[in-house]
Q: What sequence folds into this?
């Protein structure tokens, strides 16, 4: 298989080590036809470099798509813990400071992952927890940069 270069990236994950970026790009490509292989590649990237946040994203997203919601929830929480550690924030999102977050920053990743956890909770039948997370996001991201409003609209249709 040809080595992937930044110019050939399927997804721009931002600044990553070349080895992790290559694994994630191969995983994105594999995801279309072989989710088990994509899972292996995303896990390998995470094991190689657990401080590079996009590996968590890829792993929890593919498992959400596959309906493995319990595993997706675990990985998303691990990614959230790493993002908050890097941001210098407490793990409890109720204590996060309301501030502008830059794309690609650990702070933005934390917000995005809280949105993902809201979706996962909604799919798991935990609407109250999803709504609590969405209320936090409404305060911390009033412009909806991380897309929480889409999950909020979905939640409105869930009994």
A:
């Amino acid at each position: 298989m040809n080595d992937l270069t930044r110019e050939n990236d399927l997804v721009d994950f931002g600044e990553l080590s070349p080895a992790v970026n290559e694994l994630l790009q191969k995983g994105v490509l594999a995801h279309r036809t072989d989710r088990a292989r994509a899972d292996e590649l995303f896990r390998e990237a995470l094991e190689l470099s657990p401080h590079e946040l996009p590996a968590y994203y890829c792993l929890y997203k593919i498992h959400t798509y596959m309906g493995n919601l319990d595993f997706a929830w675990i990985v998303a929480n691990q990614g959230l813990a790493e993002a908050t550690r890097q941001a210098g924030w407490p793990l409890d999102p109720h204590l996060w400071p309301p501030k502008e977050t830059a794309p690609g920053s650990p702070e933005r990743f934390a917000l995005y992952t809280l949105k993902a956890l809201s979706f996962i909770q909604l799919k798991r039948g935990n609407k109250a927890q999803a709504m609590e997370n969405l209320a936090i996001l409404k305060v911390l991201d009033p412009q909806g940069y991380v897309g929480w409003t889409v999950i909020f609209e979905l939640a409105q249709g869930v009994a």
Q: What stands out?
A: DSSP finds seven helices and no strands in the chain. The longest helix spans residues 69-87. The chain has one domain: 6-156. Residues 17 and 52 are 8 Å apart (CA to CA).
